[in-house]
Amino acid sequence: MTIKPRHPSASAPDEFPEHRSGKQLKIDATHVRRQLQVMIVDPRRGRTSEIIDQMRERQERAPRQFALPFDRYPVTDLAGRRTYVLVARGQLVVDFEASRPESDPQRVLRRLGYRPWQRGWSPERPTRVFEGRKTPQELAGDVGQLTKLGITAAPHLVVPLGHIIKGDDYPFATAALGDFPQTAAAGKPGAAAVRVAVIDTGITPEDRTDSWLDSIVRRSDNTELLDVLPVVNGRAGDGRLDWSAGHGSFAAGVVQRVAPRCEVRAYRFTRSDGLGTDKDAAEAMLRAVHEATADGVRLIINASIGTPAVDGVPPLALQSAVRTVVDRFPEVLIVASAGNNGSKDPMYPAAFDGVVAVGALTADLQPAPFSSHGDWVDCSCIGVGVVATFVTGTLPPVPDPAVADYTFPANSWALWSGTSFSAPQISGLVARACLNDPKLTPRDALDALLAGAHTLPDYGRILRVLPGTPL
């Protein structure tokens, strides 16, 4: 099916022209074809399994501050195929609010051999993590027992599961965009500031000298962990970028390409290799909301993360966080990537009510072959061969005979594909609209942008924002 671009005034594609030469586009198209080839490989076999095993070994040997030991947990998708997700080893998430009041979850969990894992629990955050020496099979059995007793529980999911599909999909260097058009984060006089909170791997610790990303405040808790694994001779790192390093800086750069005057704030919820949990992501989301409320700014949350449900149960901590935001902070807009599973299986947080799910298209506005899709997807834009800011370092994460080493210098720009990079285009577009209208809420801005846009079944409303890379 051919989809005509919507009217230029709606998504203003002329404001994001192609900056690369014809020669560069041909080079980039070669790299994008490789990314697509990797992203549509069956995740249950071959190279992907090797990558997961390598990640698991790295995590088990990592220092405590970097480590997230995990296991594979078997699930069945909507097509009846057996696959798996990653779960934090021996951990369950329990939603106290959704459990029967008389069920006494803590007593039951103690009897099953679990203890509280995370401190700082409060009634505002009704989910809590418990840990025990359990195999994935034992976790599944315990969840069944808890469910029968009226206790809502699920394995503690490792959320940014992009590596299951695209762990061997590396960004490639491309031509720089040139001078940064505007650096000041400002709107019209009297307007509340507009902030995009990027819930991701964090922001590059390097100080770029080209003015890109320089307005994003670096803190110890939001800078990216670029090269900390494996530990070699007692030292962290091996001179290579870890898996998913640069993901957050790339997403932040996408937002700034679309809305250079908005404020971008980075929230890192991952540890090394881009691994973070359901609870970590939920806490980052709530922290972003509370900081924006305290600062009096209009907020768009960009969550380029996702996981499927396990046995029909979505990630409980994220579900609770989204419920809190939607119920108590309706002026906040949550935008999330639809995922790269290439199937109709709902991915979360994108598929939660109240969240804007964004799919990916090719440069000619056709469905990207890797993009998750379904009636739960609200809109889509180009997610194949997107160009944005990247970090300094060498890829691939481990030596690969099929790919020669290549190094990104300072002030790098990269080429990457995925719904992770279509979502921040929508976040940026909403922020841009809000900056131009002091009275506009992010939700109203989104509604106005989508009004009248063409619809593609299972991919929602179609928007043309950044150009991507033609194949």
Automatic annotation (TrEMBL):
The keyword Protease applies. Keywords: Hydrolase, Protease, Serine protease. Residues 193-453 form the Peptidase S8/S53 domain. Coiled coil: none annotated. The keyword Transport does not apply. Pfam families: Peptidase_S8. The active site is at residues 200, 247, 420. It comes from the Bacteria. Residues 1-22 are annotated as: Disordered. Belongs to the peptidase S8 family. This is S8/S53 family peptidase.
